[in-house]
Amino acid sequence: xxxxxxxxxxxxxxxxxxxxxxxxxxxxxxxxxxxxxxxxxxxxxxxxxxxxxxxxxxxxxxxxxxxxxxxxxxxxxxxxxxxxxxxxxxxxxxxxxxxxxxxxxxxxxxxxxxxxxxxxxxxxxxxxxxxxxxxxxxxxxxxxxxxxxxxxxxxxxxxxxxxxxxxxxxxxxxxxxxxxxxxxxxxxxxxxxxxxxxxxxxxxxxxxxxxxxxxxxxxxxxxxxxxxxxxxxxxxxxxxxxxxxxxxxxxxxxxxxxxxxxxxxxxxxxxxxxxxxxxxxxxxxxxxxxxxxxxxxxxxxx
Length: 302
Ligand code: ADP
Ligand code: MG
Fold this sequence. Notes:
Layout: E1 2-12, E2 15-26, E3 30-34, H1 41-48, E4 56-61, E5 64-65, E6 73-76, H2 88-98, H3 103-116, H4 132-144, E7 150-154, H5 162-175, E8 180-185, H6 188-192, E9 197-202, E10 205-211, H7 212-217, E11 222-227, H8 233-239, E12 245-251, E13 254-259, H9 262-275, E14 282-287, H10 291-301
Parallel strand pairs: 3-8, 3-9, 6-7, 7-8
Antiparallel strand pairs: 1-2, 1-4, 4-5, 9-10, 11-13, 11-14, 12-13
Helix pairs in contact: 2-3, 4-5
Bound molecules: adenosine-5'-diphosphate and magnesium ion.
């Protein structure tokens, strides 16, 4: 499977919702499409799911127009809308029928899919009795019905409470083995756990295409967090004089050191600690910012 989004633009009257957006990815990846509300995520996802038509540009799956490849794509809308008087099983029969799957196949496949999304026991319950997490899992079941190779999910966990969120994240983690996943979210941490690649979108434009590892290893103000023992507190005064050390903060026996060229100089710092017989309890290289802060900075400033 290879998806190619090529220079897609979509306007609503004067509002450019998606602006010359391009992205390519292949089987086995999980892509997090991340951006604040109004960034254009839902619009782009609807174009990929062939529910909206782009004004310019095109989306190709394995080199073919998306409209000819609908069977290969499963779509979970941001606000799945079920007939609440129907049972889970009835809904899947109905939706499956709508997408042209023969009833014989559905009767065989639905119990398997309900089992996969953890709704076997509830298959005869009306959807109006379902929790948010259960509804979202039913939505995923519906997106899986025709065994697509690509699944696009629009904010699958954003509206859920912590329990529902956990249920759905675990489920997505499982279906990652069977299909390529593109999911959108406005909360970075939703994607952090399950996606390897992050595409960040703002005002219709792609502003970042990166990986978790790369984001964390960027040359943001990097710091070292140390933990030492009380006997070595005086060593901290020594550190302050090193030319590569920019700032030192000491709280109890914990030290936060901001420095230049961390890759090289962190080893000098370790050597110095050893020379001075400093008992290092903890040594951690990190960013000053959490991922969420990095994300917020990108979205606000760029
Ligand atoms: P996101 O999903 O990232 O929150 P959307 O794709 O829903 O963003 O919306 C992107 C922009 O396009 C927003 O400014 C939104 O108001 C506008 N928009 C989306 N759908 C429509 C529509 N059907 N008619 C007019 N404007 C729309
Ligand atoms: Mg949206």
